[in-house]
Specification:
With 368 residues, the chain is an all-beta fold. The protein has one helix and 31 strands. The strands form seven sheets. Strands 1, 2, 3, 4, 5 and 31 form a six-stranded antiparallel sheet that branches.
Length: 368
């Protein structure tokens, strides 16, 4: 699973978000991940399993270079292309739902802003102007398009605390949706595009909230002494995944979209976190340290048939489902020294077979 080469990528992702949020709340982070670590990309990327489909967009930097770029690569390992080719730090790419455009961040004009380009790297436009003295945070899910492609959401810091913003793809109507003295982070559009799920400490202990896409009708969905962290909607919009330490250790939970029927799915004495629905909503992938390392697990939507599909000596840090739900891209680290970790990636069949090394990047988006 582990390879070396001259192209290097840097980490950013769900593991970082957990650390920032938990640290802010005084909660110990179950897995510590450095914010920026060089990672090798194979010089000749081995071909993943034959059924790999679609394209992956990722952020990274070439060895010896000081600039981050946005790259695109076919899911079969071919066709690596540098889309930005700019001396600035270009990061956090996000496909539009129709895959015709890519939103990303860049500091090419001095401060980090939101930009937009065509899927081939052409037609770059700047969407935000940092006269308002905000900085873009590398929080999962980074930049996120509304299902109807009319808005791009992101998290930014205003007067030392994060808020959730939206902006139209032409740069108009920049809006602070949360505008609250608390920390508001980690947002997810509902599948119908009418609501946004988010994480907030506005009532004390960080809990899960939902609001309309204009920031109105904020409603709290969870209310307990532990920390509840949202992880996304089911594809049908009827349920919400989250993880919580309400029972003394981190477990995977599911609840109805109105906050009712909160159920512990993982029920394990180890730490389980970062769940994500498969595209068809029938399975859930998540991370767990129950086998000694942080490994990638998959279970059925009701919590049954929990199995380790990575089964290695590395720690799996983040992952992304393939569009057809048959495979998962997983990024891993090997080693205990934070200053000397080896970062690698693979594409794995959902049954755990066919692990193949793949190009490693941060801020992965995988589209059909």
């Amino acid at each position: 699973m582990y390879t070396h080469s001259k192209l290097i990528f840097y980490i950013g992702g769900a593991a970082i978000l957990i650390g920032i949020v938990m640290s802010a709340c005084g909660i110990a982070n179950p897995s510590t991940t450095p914010a920026t670590v060089p990672v090798p990309l194979p010089q000749q990327v081995p071909i993943p399993p034959a059924q790999s489909i679609g394209q992956i967009v990722m952020g990274g930097t070439a060895e010896g270079a000081g600039d981050f770029e946005i790259y695109k690569i076919n899911a079969d390992g071919t066709g690596l292309v540098n889309l930005t080719n700019n001396p600035a730090r270009d990061m956090l790419p996000a496909w539009s739902p129709d895959k015709s455009r890519i939103a990303f961040t860049s500091d090419r004009d001095g401060k980090t802003q939101i930009y937009l380009m065509n899927a081939d790297g052409s037609g770059v436009i700047q969407l935000t102007n940092d006269d308002w003295d905000k900085s873009i945070l590398r929080f999962s899910p980074y930049l996120s398009w509304s299902p109807d492609e009319k808005w791009i959401a992101f998290t930014a810091i205003v007067t030392d605390k994060p808020d959730i913003f939206i902006v139209k793809p032409d740069g108009s109507d920049l809006t602070n949706l949360t505008n609250n003295p608390a920390d508001d982070v980690r947002f997810y559009w509902s599948p119908d595009g009418k609501r946004i799920l988010f994480h907030s400490s506005r009532d004390g202990t960080p809990q899960i909230y939902v609001m309309n896409t204009d920031g109105s009708a904020v409603r709290r969905l969870t209310n307990n002494q532990g920390v509840d962290v949202p992880a996304g909607w089911s594809p049908d919009g009827k349920q919400i995944l989250f993880y919580s330490n309400r029972d003394g250790n981190w477990e995977i939970y599911i609840m109805n979209a109105d906050g009712s029927a909160q159920i512990n799915l993982s029920n394990n004495s180890a730490f389980d976190n970062d769940p994500a629905f498969s595209p068809d909503g029938k399975q859930i992938a998540f991370r767990s340290n129950r086998d000694g390392h942080w490994q990638l697990y998959v279970m059925n939507r009701n919590g049954s048939s929990q199995r380790n599909i990575s089964n290695g000596d590395a720690d799996d840090n983040w992952f992304w489902w393939s569009p057809d739900g048959t495979q998962i891209y997983v990024a891993s680290t090997l080693g205990q020294d934070p200053q000397n970790l080896k970062w690698n990636a693979a594409i794995i069949n959902v049954d755990g077979s066919g692990q193949k090394p793949f190009a490693f990047g941060s801020n992965i988006n995988w589209r059909p």
